[in-house]
Design goal:
It is found in: Cell membrane. The chain is mainly alpha-helical. The protein is 70% helix and 7% strand. It has helices spanning 21-24, 49-79, 86-115, 122-155, 160-163, 166-192, 209-215, 221-254, 259-267, 270-287, 295-320, 323-338; strands spanning 3-6, 11-14, 28-31, 34-37, 39-42, 119-121, 201-202. Helix 3 (86-115) runs antiparallel to helix 4 and helix 4 (122-155) runs antiparallel to helix 6.
């Protein structure tokens, strides 16, 4: 039997049938002197077997809470005509984006834990990366659109309906989806030109663009430059809109003479401000403050916060802090309770 050796990782075996399955399953399609792998291996959040069951139960629970919570927000807004306003239309889109965000990574991770398999095909990995990029990007743009809506509502209340017309509302809803898909498509097309040689192991629970660039044996300078420029724009542009909108909102609120009036004005954007602080606070806390945490672990923590925790808590923030949403939820529950009593 011919001997097969991998000198770069110090492993050798006689015949493919006796090799470690982890390496044997990494099929490779030869292209001249280079090879292109057909699948990747996701190492997940932990390599400890005793922690897998706990991770499965924990993330399954968070996934179900996120889908049900955000799905309920979409249902309530679509059924209650009182909530057919720009702010709640943006919120319904944010809820849909949150469902997309968590559905991109968690179901695959749960399936891998259940089947004790770490593999993901090349095509599935690229698709997962695309939707992960799209989901994070659209969250940024939608939070910016919602901040502008609150700015108009508080700073120009008499002209709100004139400014936030149906046409502008549709535009502010469609543009984030278009831009986020353009951003994700740009990174995906640039990634498709790269060649992946021998290494196909990702120390993550989903296909992250930065890690895929590290694995490639091609020149990734253009990819990294585009990632930096586009990533910086995607974060700073919506954040600038949010920042200046709230400066104007605070100034307008402080001009109100009564304490009750100030509280009423500011309470209309309390839920949005909480989500903004959670979203951008995560970015600052994970990526800007020095930490003793290992770089790979830090990236995993950041990814869990962005793709799992934030989408899960958003429905609670908007339902518990928002009187309109609480009222609409009560009406929906009472309607569902009343229907079985009807003949």
């Amino acid at each position: 039997m011919a001997e097969v050796e991998w000198h770069h990782i110090g492993i050798s075996c006689r015949g493919m049938n006796t090799c470690d399955p982890f390496f044997r399953s990494a099929e490779k399609m030869h292209q001249g002197n280079q090879t292109t792998i057909s699948e990747f291996f996701l190492l997940g959040l932990s390599n400890q077997p005793e922690q897998q069951k706990l991770l499965f139960v924990l993330f399954l629970g968070m996934y179900l809470v996120t889908v049900v919570g955000n799905g309920l927000i979409i249902l309530v807004i679509s059924l209650d005509s009182y909530l057919h306003t720009p702010m709640y239309i943006f919120l319904a889109n944010l809820s849909f984006a949150d469902i997309s965000s968590i559905s991109t990574s968690v179901p695959k991770m749960l399936m891998n834990i259940q089947t004790k398999s770490q593999s993901i095909s090349y095509e599935s990995c690229i698709t997962q990366m695309y939707f992960a990029l799209m989901s994070v990007t659209i969250d940024n743009f939608l939070l910016g659109a919602m901040a502008y809506d609150r700015f108009v509502a508080i700073c120009h209340p008499l002209n709100y309906m004139t400014i936030m017309q149906k046409k502008l509302c549709i535009l502010l809803t469609v543009i984030p989806w278009v831009l986020s898909n353009i951003v994700a498509l740009t990174h995906t097309l640039l990634l498709l030109r790269l060649v992946f040689c021998d290494s196909n192991t990702l120390p993550h629970f989903f296909c992250d663009l930065a890690l895929l660039l590290k694995l490639s044996c091609s020149d990734t300078m253009i990819n990294e430059l585009v990632l930096f420029i586009v990533g910086l724009s995607v974060i700073t542009f919506p954040f600038a809109i949010i920042f200046f909108s709230y400066i104007c909102i605070v100034r307008a609120v402080l001009r109100i003479s009564s304490t009750e009036g100030k509280w009423k004005a500011f309470s209309t954007c309390g839920s949005h401000l909480t989500v903004v602080l959670l979203f951008y606070g995560t970015i600052v806390g994970v990526y800007f403050f020095p930490s003793s945490t290992h770089h790979d672990d830090r990236d995993k923590i950041g990814a869990v916060l962005f793709t799992v925790v934030t989408p899960m808590v958003n429905p609670f923030i908007y339902s518990l802090r928002n009187k309109d949403m609480k009222g609409a939820l009560r009406k929906l529950i009472s309607r569902k309770s009343f229907l079985p009593l009807m003949p």
